[in-house]
Design brief:
By secondary structure, the protein is mostly helical. It contains 17 helices and three strands. The longest helix is centred in the first third of the chain and has 35 residues, at 52-86.
């Protein structure tokens, strides 16, 4: 049966009862597992990527940029905690935006989230194959990234419990690796404070604190984002979380606190080893400089570096696979993309959504493998841009819902409120402008524009009917009746 919602141009279908029974997720995640999911999704950013900000802004330029991004993400996670408690759906950001701005913008936000996680996973899989070369040099890179994808998606398909428990323990192991690095750098006297001011020659020597002035801070923003990008994935686990109003805010806040501590320690201690900020900024593997200074150059430091990087990247890959499976599941269940994608298995895992996201990701990795490092960079940058688009939409959704839906049940309320969301929205737009101004992001801008353009065409010409009983849609329809 089809019904036309009287305040909308969209057609809703009332589906049979067994439709949702075949599309159910299992509840069971507590705040500790959510912490592991949140930290695990991000922790790869402490192993690589952030250091390129040293090239464009020097240490203090990147430090200020990191502070600004930490404030932005704190504002985001407090808003997301409140919205997740009020709208505890697998759609996460799509659900929030759908309720605030309607089906079209909810769909666009959902697509942006899917692009973020699918593309980030592809880049990480490609990176892992490169970093493992010292250990398995005779093995083709294609075998490595295919293997890590298969292992990751198999764990996620098996069950939610296995996915979150493996993520939790891998996250602890990755933190332990970083902790050993921090203690080694301090205990062995490898870290030297003066090396923080060893800036690249093209940045000049004056002023000492900001060699490129505030323009350097602005240019370092895209790299500072790496310390926190992905923590918002927790909202996608809302439907699988026990006592969402209690556990989701706890998981988000504890994960954010952990990431702030790790980002400060990584930024300071890793920038002050080896050749200092100038050398670390040019390294593809910043952690290796400290390990080489500690162990000396050779096979030992190479092997330890490869293992450490693979561990950090591996946990992020697993959590991101979990995440794109949930957003594709939610969009499919609600009818925005083909409904067959959202069917779950006997363990209530969205196996078809996971496989679809993996196939798309593998195609991206193949393009990287056939192309060059530039292709890898474009995919990574597309992930960052897509994330920032979703952040802007969610911050605006939070503010809109505060005014338009005061009756929305809010069992948890953000201490930062509308003012915090406004600050988060301003910083998010600021970060988006910073990324758009970076020359290396131009190809990524084109890539995101093409993907979103195709998504818009699909939305208006696919003739898909939305599912009236989908949790995300029920909440939105009730609000407008």
């Amino acid at each position: 049966m089809s019904v036309k919602h009287h305040k909308s141009i969209f057609i809703y279908e009332v589906v049979p009862e067994n439709y949702l029974k075949r599309r159910q997720l299992k509840v069971g995640a507590g705040s500790l597992l959510l912490w592991g999911l949140g930290v695990g999704a991000v922790i790869s950013g402490d192993f690589f990527g952030w250091n390129y900000g040293l090239l464009v802004g020097g240490f203090w330029g990147l430090a200020i940029a990191t502070l600004l991004m930490a404030i932005m993400y704190i504002c985001i996670i407090y808003a997301v905690a409140e919205l997740s408690a009020a709208l505890p759906h697998a759609g996460g950001f799509y659900s929030f935006t759908r309720n605030a701005f309607g089906p079209f913008w909810g769909y666009i936000c959902g697509v942006a989230v899917a692009v973020e996680y699918v593309f980030a996973t592809a880049a990480i899989a490609s990176g892992m194959s490169n970093y493992l070369k010292p250990l398995i040099s005779p093995v083709p890179s294609s075998f490595v990234w295919l293997l890590v994808y298969v292992i990751g998606v198999a764990i996620c398909i098996h069950s939610m419990e296995l996915s979150l428990y493996v993520s939790f323990w891998l996250t602890l192991a990755a933190i332990m690796v970083l902790g050993i690095f921090y203690v080694s750098m301090l205990g062995a006297g490898v870290f030297k404070l003066e090396l923080l001011f060893n800036v690249p020659a093209d940045l000049g020597r004056s002023p000492m604190w900001l060699p490129k002035g505030w323009q350097g801070v602005f240019a370092a923003i895209p790299y500072a984002i790496w310390f926190y990008l992905g923590i918002e994935a927790l909202s996608l686990a809302s439907e699988e979380t026990d006592n969402v109003p209690k556990n989701m805010p706890r998981g988000l806040k504890s994960a954010m606190f952990t990431l702030i501590v790790l980002s400060v320690l990584t930024l300071v201690l890793n920038s002050g080893v080896g050749g200092g900020a100038a050398a670390i900024g040019q390294s593809n593997v910043p952690l290796s400089a400290g390990l080489e200074a500690y162990f000396g150059k050779g096979s030992t430091s190479n092997i330890i570096t490869a293992i450490a990087l693979s561990l950090g990247l591996g946990v992020s890959l697993l959590t991101l696979i979990y995440s794109y499976g949930r957003i594709l599941f939610a969009l499919s269940r609600a009818g925005y993309i083909p409904r067959w994608i959202s069917v779950t298995n006997k363990n209530q895992s969205p196996y078809r959504a996971l496989i679809l996201g993996t196939v798309v990701g593998l195609i991206c990795v193949m393009l990287v493998d056939l192309g060059s490092d530039a292709v890898d960079a474009v995919i990574l940058n597309m992930s960052v841009l897509a994330a920032l688009i979703s952040y802007v939409l969610v911050m605006l959704s939070y503010i809109k819902l505060k005014f338009s839906s005061p009756e929305l049940p809010r069992s948890y309320k953000s201490r930062l409120g509308r003012k915090g969301a406004a600050v988060g929205a301003i910083l998010t737009i600021f970060a988006l402008i910073a990324c758009l101004s970076v020359p290396t992001y131009q190809s990524a801008i084109l890539g995101v524009a093409v993907v979103m353009g195709l998504a818009v065409l699909y939305f208006f010409f696919s003739r898909n009917q939305l599912v009236a009983q989908a949790p995300e849609e029920i909440a939105a329809i009730k609000k407008t009746l």
